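Exercise 7.
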Amino acid sequence: MYKKFFEFYVTKTEPEKAHKLALQLIKNSFFLRNPFLKKDYKNLNQKILNMDFKSPIGLAAGFDKNAEVYNEIGKLGFGFAEIGTVTPESQYGNQKPRVFRLLEDNALINRLGFPNDGMIQIKTRMNKDSPKGICGVNIGPNKKNAKDIDDYVLCFDQFCEIASYITINISSPNTPGLRQQHKDENITKLIDELHLRRSEKSSKVPILFKISPDINDKEIDSLCRIFLDKKIDGLILTNTSISRDKNLYSVNKIEEGGLSGPPIENLSNSLIKEFYNRINKKFPIIGAGGVRDGKSAFEKIKSGASLIQLYTSLVYEGPFVASKINKELSSILKLNSIENISDAVGIDCN
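Solution. The predicted structure, written as tokens, is:
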């Protein structure tokens, strides 16, 4: 029964409507009580950024945009969740339709444009239901302020005391001008402003930067130099891509927006390796892009990611995907005589 329902949900239901149904299912479903979903695999335990991660698998921003199910997510086997992207003012985002399934490719294209309830309402919601696990908050600017940094500071002020970490989204392809923040002078100013604000508020919350996969070697070199010089806390690699694999099969491949899922897996892994080889283990990398099972998760780890995020595979594989990956990943480590997942980070590099 569940399988038939899920197949209908994936293939027949309009994507944004299906997303709302999925949120309701996670909020109210009895299967969250299954103790096997939260099984603790000791070889997956890590301490990163002074936080204890029971699983390296996290839910990426974009699913729980408005902070509705972050506590329930932990009951599904995820080691952490990330809400958002949150902007200072509520906004509708881009016009619909703006989410497209590429069923033949197990992929998605979205051009959502940060639809969310705004920082005040979301902060109020979180205050009423404090995070019980590791919960990051992904922040960004309103569309009209995409090239400025003030919106990041406003959101940082709201969430620095309640978030486990804060992600600075400078890489969504769906807000015009946002990726200009990758430029040397812009990213330098943004880092300085956020680090100063954190100091002024006597906060110790880690600040991570989420990077585009659509950057070249020169940009990678420049960003790594700045990140090392400024001693940032960590990176998320990568966001969705505007590039298109020529081997995509779905007719929806022509849609504008950010591509996610297996078609960007190799692009993401390649970028993770490039950054990992340059930063010399000075800060952790969270890898995202195409993770759907233990094997693909292990490839991300070997490429240099200490933690992993997913979203698209939740759509295609269902709510038990994190639990399944944990089991498979733990077994892969044992088969390779690797005591702990941290020992596998970056072993394919250099």
